[in-house]
Structures are given as C-alpha cells and as structure tokens.
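TICKET #2291
ISSUE: user wants both folds in one file
ATTACHMENT 1:
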Amino acid sequence: MLKEYKNELFQTLLTHEIGIDNLEINENFKAIFPSLSGSYVNGLKVSYKPMPKMQFVFLERPDSFELFNIASVKFTPALELKLNQPSNLHNFRQGLEEFKLWLVKDLKGYIREVNEIDLWSTYLQRKNANDITTINYADQSNFSKEETESIKIALSELKVLINERYTKNDVQQQIVAHHIKYLTERVEALSKTDYKGVLINTFISICIALSLDSQKGAELMQLIIQVFQFSPGLLHAN
C-alpha cells in the first residue's frame, strides 16, 4: 500500500474512539481466497489487539496501487474472514469508507457484546456463591462439590478485581494468576480448615508481591471478605 494511503489510514485510527493502541497493523498479511485466483494474496491487515480474530484487510492487486479487494470479519457467530460482498474492486477511498463502517458496525458491536453484563450468568454465579456463607471452616472435612465450585467462582471473580485495582503490568498479572491457580487447585485437596490458612497466607503473599502498602493491603483483605462473603473473623486464626 502506498505511504499516502497508509498515512491516511493511520490518521483514521489515531482519531477513532476505539483507540489506536488497541489496534494493530500488519503490512505482511497473506491469505488464500478461492475467488481471487486461488493463490496467496498480499494485503494490509488491521486487527483488534484484545481479539485479533476481529480484522479488516485491504487486499492488494499485483497490477495496481490504486485498486483493492476488501475482506473483513463481520460481527456474526462465525467470526470468519470473508471477502466483502459484492467482491468488486475498490479504490482506496471506497475501501476506507468500508473500513470506517466496519469499525462502527462490526468491531464496536463486538466490543459492546464483550462488555455487556450477562445478567443470567451473574445471577447463577451469585446463587452458587451464596453457598460460601454456609461453609464451616473449622470443619476438618473436605469441601463438597457445590462448595468447591462456589470457591472457584469467587476466586475467578477475585482475580479480575485484583488485576483491575492493584496490578500495574503483565508481570504482576502473571503473579496474581499463578497464586489464584494455586488456590483453585488446592481447594480440592485440602480440608476446610487447612484451606482457610492457605487462602490467607496466599493473599498475604500477593500483597507482598504487588508491593501494596498497609492501606492497600487492608483494602485487598476487605475485597476478599466481600467476594467470598466471609465474616471478618475469617482473617484471624481460631
């Protein structure tokens, strides 16, 4: 693609509300489209970093800098890269208008769906999580199947909240993920009493690894209480 056109595409991305940092350009895209000679076709691809499968491609012609075929992933259940229909050639301005329409209709539609709260799923999770309030952590027996699932749901929710509020980079998120994975695995192996101790010690380790000060450490402990619906007494040895 000519630099003039790449610069115009860049300006479009730079000013778009989705944010240029959330989009990636690959000038070395190659794919086979049966209706386009059946051989590899080069192109410039714009993809959405959080979901790289969402992509829009300007397919280049070997005989012209001015004409393009257009392919994109529409916001449909298939999420499949296909030639836009009708698959006739576009000049760059026409292709750019197709791209702007894709940003508004398909990519923003996908983002809205991802960010939309699933009320039914949330209801079921909360319903299951209510089982946590009935767990007796002085009991030396193992967790029941229902209790185990409730704790796993709470841990998953807690990981999201910790990353949103306390982590600053990918390394810290990996640390949190490692500790949450450990707690998820141990819930099936330990007694209720032993798990309580491991839970508390693990989150103390998270506070240290994230270099949380005393105030943020206390906030994190309160977050644990909120998510697990424990009484504050959980954080003290019996």
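ATTACHMENT 2:
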Amino acid sequence: MSTPFSISFNSYVLQNSSFRTQIIQHTNIPTKIIQTETKARADGLTIVNVKYGQREINVEGLLSASDRNTLVGLIDTMKLNLKDASGVLDIDYGNSTRRYYATVADLQLPEEFYSITSVPYKIKFICADPFGYATVSGMISLPGQTALLLDTVITMSGSIDSDPAIQLTINTGSSVSLITLSNESTREVIIISKPGGNFANSDVLMIDSKNKSVKINNSGIDYTGRFPSLNVNAKPRIRLSFNATSVNYDVIIRYSPRFL
C-alpha cells in the first residue's frame, strides 16, 4: 500500500510502515510582526512595517510495531533523530516537495497502558526562517561578459519575494572603481567599492541578499544602499553596472523560490 505523502526531518522518514503520519499542518502563513504608530490627534494606528516572524508546523500520527520491545526501540530512535537543534524538514506538497528549516519544539508520545504496540505522536516544529523553499534552486550563469551595463530578466515562482546570491568574478579590468547591482522593477540598489582602490583582476565579489553581506575575496566589506530582492509579481530585471574603462567578468545568480 502506497503512502499518500512523504515527510522527513534530516532524511529521517516519518511516513512508512511504522510511522503513519496523518496530519501535517504547514500551509498557514507565518506569524506576522506588525509595527504600528499612533496617529497624532486622531483615532486608529498607522502601519509602519510588516515582517514575518516564525512558522509553526504541527505533525500528528501513529507509531506502530510488532511487539513492545520493538516499539520502545522506535521511540528511542525517533527521539534521537529529532533532537538536533535545527534541520531540514521536507514535506510532499502537490507534485513537488516543500522544504523548511526547522527545529523540534515539542514532541508528545502519550502512551496508554492498554496499547503496548502503538503510540500516537504529536510533533511541533518551529521555523525561525518562516518561509518554505523549493528543493531545487535556480541558477543563471553568464561567463565572459564585457558590457558595462548588463540586464538580466528572471522568471520567478513562489508566493513571496526571494533573496538572491550573486557571485561576480573580475577576469580582467581597467579602472573598475564602482559596481552597482539593482532590481530595476523594485528600485532596490546596492553600490559597492573596494576598500583602498579599484577592483583587481581575479577579484571575487559575493553579494548575499538573504544574509545581508558583501564580501570581496571572502572578506566582508561595507556597502551603500539596499540589497535587491527578486519579486514574484513581475519578472525582475537585475541590472549590473560598472564605473570602469573596460571589464571582463563572470556572473552567477543563485536563487530559490520562497513560499508563504
């Protein structure tokens, strides 16, 4: 008999002949953090900012075994595999797998004296990263570019904007003083210069929008502006521009669709 869906935490399977997971609640939107301000001399509030906090995922099912000793062993193994501080929670969803980065906040195994070969379980996962992800990331590779202004249009899926990571390698360049990365659809722009002078041949620039970091040759540097995101309600146009006489460079854009 085939199972209706699969679920695993750090590759530990929670749907097989022993684990019969029956309920997975993961499709509610994450907790919203809403920042407000009172209106001057007026009723009501003004919404200043809205962010997403954490996501809670609840899983329920029945753990069964052929005898008592086998059940006790399965319970111990379950606790062993769910004890990690954080991990990858994969859940079948439609024709794909939805991935969450989670930790087990609560595990309940209410044993009853009259049931010696089975026990129900309830698991509460907390996701500090509130979004679900596709298990396959997107990548655009553009080697050997020479244009001082390069536009790339990306077709995005998902239900909320994604944070890309951009790797830029300077193969050769002349007077490369400033590099600007922007999303022309959202007007998010970040401007980067190299401390102490111009960019040099073989320099590798990493722009990580998710972790809000910029590095040159693995060393963190300051920047000006706002990290570009990839918006899902339009085809984002990512623009890379250089203040330079000439430049030859490789670009890799990595991104993962995100879901509420």
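RESOLUTION: both attachments delivered.
EXTRA DETAIL ON ATTACHMENT 2: The longest strand covers residues 96-108.
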